[in-house]
Specification:
This is Alkylphosphonate utilization protein. It is built from no helices and nine strands. By secondary structure, it is mainly β. The strands form three sheets. The chain has a three-stranded antiparallel β-sheet, with no helix packed on it. Strands 5-4-9 form a three-stranded antiparallel β-sheet, with no helix packed on it. It has a three-stranded antiparallel β-sheet with strand order 6-7-8, with no helix packed on it.
Amino acid sequence: MSEANFPPCPECGSEYTYEMDPLLVCPECGHEWNPAIPAEDENEAPAIKDSVGNVLADGDSVTVVKTLKVKGASQPIKAGTTVRNIRLIDAVDGHDIDARVEGFGQMKLKSSIVKKI
């Protein structure tokens, strides 16, 4: 029986990985992965998606999908309001979009309440 040289587990670093076609398996932590697919860069931020699963990018235009109450404002942001030239930011309390909303000014929005145009 020949011994194969498999890479260590990317999750726990265990050297006791084994092959279970087409995956590699770690017996210590139970992690399974496909060595043919490169692992995501840990420094790369995960993609931010809108309410229907479209990937958002800086500069996109979006539509608000539900009416939003705004603290200190007399009127809400109505569903269907278009927000242009969004900027993606690191999430703060779930708010991962920074944008200027017409009539309201600069504010942070959640990607779960917008839809890409």
